[in-house]
Structure formats: structure tokens, C-alpha cells
Amino acid sequence: ESKLFNGSEKDISLSSSKLTKKESLKVQKKNYREEKKRATKELLSTITDPSVIVMADWLKIRGTLKSWTKLWCVLKPGVLLIYKTPKNGQWVGTVLLNACELIERPSKKDGFCFKLFHPLEQSIWAVKGPKGEAVGSITQPLPSSYLIIRAASESDGRCWMDALELALKCSSLLKRTMIREGKEHDLNSSDSTHVSLYGLLRGNNLHSGENFPEIERHQFKDPDMYSDKSDKENEHDHDESDNDGLGKSEESDSDTSERQDDSYVDPEPIDIKETTYLEQSHEELGEAGEAAQTEVVSEENKSLIWTLLKQVRPGMDLSKVVLPTFILEPRSFLDKLSDYYYHADFLSEAALEENAYNRMKKVVKWYLSGFYKKPKGLKKPYNPILGETFRCMWIHPRTNSRTFYIAEQVSHHPPISAFYVSNRKDGFCLSGSILAKSKFYGNSLSAILDGEGRLTFLNRGEDYVMTMPYAHCKGILYGTMTLELGGTVNITCEKTGYSATIEFKLKPFLGNNDSVNQISGKIKLGKEVLAILEGHWDSEVTISDKKTDASEIFWNPTSDMRQRRLLRYTVKFEEQGDFESEKLWQQVTRAINNKDQTEATQEKYVLEEAQRKGAKERKLKGEEWTCKLFDQDSVTGEWHYKFADTRPWDPLNDMIQFEKDGTIQTKVRH
């Protein structure tokens, strides 16, 4: 029995099983290779032969999110195959039982609970399915080093425990007795329907003895998603693979999972259902300086301004005032907020930067890169409708990653826009909400963006909290209408102690052209000033080191830099919902582009009236508005994206980040 368990087909007798000293090394190696081929043939046959089944039934399996999923489990000698259903063969995963221990697990719920686990917290999963599937049908994330399973009754559970014990302890004996004669597949067969064992089970060893080459273990790093501390993953070193006797194709597989760099692209085609994004067809970039921020108002439009001014008084909030369409930029404010991510590759670089001071400088550089994109003239984006959403993304060619942007208008009175930005592969995400307020001062008005954004570097657990400048429009009654940015903003990282302060300066009454769009700032560690920033937010900014007095160009949106902007992709129009910005405002945008202010005003009124009607109906019914993508924290009042995933990227398990119906997701191998 011992010989059978260790995979030996030799006669049990002592004389034939022991190698004599006279046997040559060549003969020993030949026997060794034959044993490996035989063991490979046996296990491959048990996996592919539908008649070789110890037990099969429905079982409930608990995922990492602590919810249970009913799955079809097929127990074969040495492996537990898991499917979504028994008929259509939607493979979920394969558990390698030789790596597992089995234990009964106490539970308050009905049924019988037990746990399969690796005692050293290594992966228990094969990396490919019985038909060579690279990715299983994901129902919910499953743990990598253990499985908690529930049977319907105690008798069923005991039966499964006995069967698993048998499969765990006597897998070789079971294989031999259950494989029907003539059903074993030749390893050298050219039948392409059967995948080699090394392709199926690459990532775990098959036997604990020396009769089979140890194939590298597939490792995972996901410490925060397990139900208790004992289930957490630890990193372990790979043991050396014994490739003796393997062909070149098998040898080339031996170090696939050791590639942990972020540029690794999985060779298998990835089948995911995701939103279709198309490259942005048109983009408006205003020129630097004051000329691009001024508007000469026609006589016709001046009368509209006077009509507007009759509705307001100095100090009044303009959020409830209907603005004329000639000052509207033909896109939503939710779209406008995405202007900050055309240089999101600066954040990718910052996430990799080891020095905290240099990291802060890269964050400040990214922050300044979001302002030079501006419309020609004095324009204001649409006020978003309650429930309006906007989605877009940018592709990073250097890191082969994508930055996703999701925004929703979560409140109308007061007008609050919530947003979430994610690029898990490059190690960062942003979230925040903006309350847009407008104040009228007679000959000028200010659009104040009250709120903050929070940038997080996922691998470091660092948060950078930042505020926004306000937009100031002057020359409404007399003079030239001009738009400027003003106010002092702060970027603070509590964990590192570094902070930055930037003042956006309004043009003084007697100022020249050089005093337009000026900024000045400081980068500090605690209270110590390390560097001084000077320049213009839409052109060149210099940085001066306080210790060395050395100055250099910190940021300059030159034509070359503009050419290197990341390409933005927006959702295909046919796949947009009725409340997505482009589709929602399409009639207003068309009228503005056709310079038909009458039609634009009418179409804008239709949308605003529908919003008012909906608010009245909800008030009569006593209903509250429910947001689609964001939730408000009842304690802090902050808005959080419902599907936020802030885990560090795991290059061994995470395959690709994608978005579907407003949900940013990650396709995983297991």
C-alpha cells in the first residue's frame, strides 16, 4: 500500500523494488522519468474522464466578502472541481487536495460546516481549468489559501468529510482503481482537446514525495479580505522547480508566475463585459494669458444680462438663478471636473517615488496641470441635474493601465457633485465632493467650489487632502468681462508631514499683463519651508530650493507637454443612460453649437422643469432621492463611491481593471 501511495508500479517484492548498488545512474534516471510520466498520466486521466468521480453535489462556499454562494462540487482523486452549474460546465476553480488539510468548523447556522486549508497559508488553487480555462466564472472572490464549505445536513457533511479524507490520503490508490482500462490518455498524444498537466496545475506541486517534479507555487497578497487573522496570506519564497525530463514548452512555464512587475500582460485572452469607450473626438484648449479669458458682450446679450441683474442683489447666492445660455460652455460641470486627469501619469510616477518630499512635489505638479485647459472666452458649464452621471477614462501607454473617472450629481439644493477616480494598477485613487456656490458683488461674481479631494496612494496608505480655488468674473456691468482664479489652496499629507500652499492671485487694478493668472506657493515639512513656487497657473512655474537657492522650471504646459497629454475616452453614445451628461444635455449642446440661443434656452428649460416636477412629486410622496453610485456618510457627511476598491494591486492575481454600468471592477485570476 505504501508503494502504491508513492506512485510505484513495481512489484511489491523487496528484490524487485530495491535498486542494487550495481545499477547505473542512467537506469535510475530512466525509472525516475517513467514514474513522473505515469503519475502525470494518472492525474490527467482522472481530471478529464467523466466517469472518475468520487462524489458530486451542491455545496455552499463562503467567499472573501463573507457571503455564501451555492456551487456544484465534483470530487475526484486528488482534486475538487467547482462549477456554477452541473450541466453547462462553467468552471469556477480547481482545489489541489494534496496541499490541503481538512477540519470540521463549528457554526451557528443550519447544516454542517468544514474547512479545507493549506497549513502554510499557500494557494490551494490550480491556475487553469480542466479544459485549459485561464479564468474561472467569477461569482464572488474566493479565498486563496482556504475554503469554508457548508453541506445541507450533518449526514451530508460527514459523507463529504469522509470522501475528502479518502481523496486526501489515498489519491494514488483511488486513481488506480477508478481509471477504466483503455481510458488513459497517452502523454504524447496530439489530441489538442487535452491540456498538459503542467498547464493545468502550474502553480502547485502534485505530490509531496520525490516522484514528481515540484512545480512552482502561485502566490497571492491580499491581507485585508479574510474573515480572521489565521486566514491571512503570508509571502513565502518559491522552491526551485525540478524541470528534469520536461520538454521546452513545460520549462518555459516554470517562471511565469514569478514575473511580478506591473508591465506583465497575461497571455490568455480576457473575456470581460465592459463599457465601450471611444476616443474623444474634439477638445478645446484655450491659449495662455488674459486674452483667452475675456468676453466682449454683444448688445443683444447685454440686455439679457440686465434682465438677469434685476433678479439679484449684492451678496446673493446665484445657485437658484437661471443663467442665460450665451455664457454656457457646452458641457456639464461633471465633465469639467475631469480636466484634472489628462496628466494622471504624474500620479503614476508619484506612487512609485520613494522619497516623500519628491512625492509631494509630483503631486503639486499634477495639481497645477489641471488648470491650463480652459474654454475660449468667459464660459460656465451646465449645472448638473440631480442624478446626472458622467464617465470617462484615460489610457496610460507606459504602464498599460487605465484611469477611470466616475461622477454623479448627488444633490441639487445645495448643488453637490461627487466624484471618484481609480487606477489600482498604478497605485492611486481619488475621491471627493464639491459644493458649487456663486456670489454676486455688483460688477463681479465668484463661483466658489467648496469641498475637498482626497488622493490616496494605495501601496503607502497616504492621503493627500486638497482644496480648490474659486473662479472670479468681473466687468459684468462695465468694462470687459474677464474670468480669473483666486484664493489660497492647501495640499496636506498628514502621514508624512509634508504640505503645500498655493495662492491664486487676482489681477490688481493697475496691474499689467504679466500680473494675470499669477500664483505663488510653498512646500513645507511641518513649519519649515523647503521650496518656493512662483509663476502663472496657465504657463511657466519655477521652484526655488530654500537651502541651496537653486531655481528650475517646475511646470510649463508647452506645446510638447500638451502633445504628451493622456488620451481621454468617453462612453459610446449608444451605451449611455438617459441621465448621462452627454445624452442628457444633447439638445442644449446642439443648439449652442449652432448658435441658436432661443432653442438652447428652451431645451434647457425643459430639463430644469422636469427636475422641479420630480422634486415636487417626491415631496408629496414623502420620498427621499436615492443616489445610484454614491452614499453619504451619516456621521461625517462625506460622499463615498459605493464600489470603491482601495486594495493595493496584486500583479499575481489582479489581471485588469475595467468599468461596467458605473461600477469600476477588477478581473482576477482566482
Automatic annotation (TrEMBL):
InterPro entries cross-referenced by the UniProt entry: OSBP_sf (IPR037239), Oxysterol-bd (IPR000648), Oxysterol-bd_CS (IPR018494), PH-like_dom_sf (IPR011993), PH_domain (IPR001849)
Keywords: Endoplasmic reticulum, Lipid transport, Lipid-binding, Membrane, Phosphoprotein, Transmembrane, Transmembrane helix, Transport
Compartments, as annotated in UniProt: Endoplasmic reticulum membrane
A single GO BP: lipid transport
Domain PH: 52-169
Gene Ontology terms, MF aspect: cholesterol binding
Gene Ontology cellular component annotations, sorted alphabetically: cortical endoplasmic reticulum; cytosol; endoplasmic reticulum membrane
Membrane-related topology note: Single-pass membrane protein
Region listing for Disordered, in residue ranges: 208-271
Biased composition annotated in UniProt, kind: Basic and acidic residues: 214-262
Family from the record: Belongs to the OSBP family.
Protein name: Oxysterol-binding protein
Source organism phylogeny: Eukaryota, Metazoa, Chordata, Craniata, Vertebrata
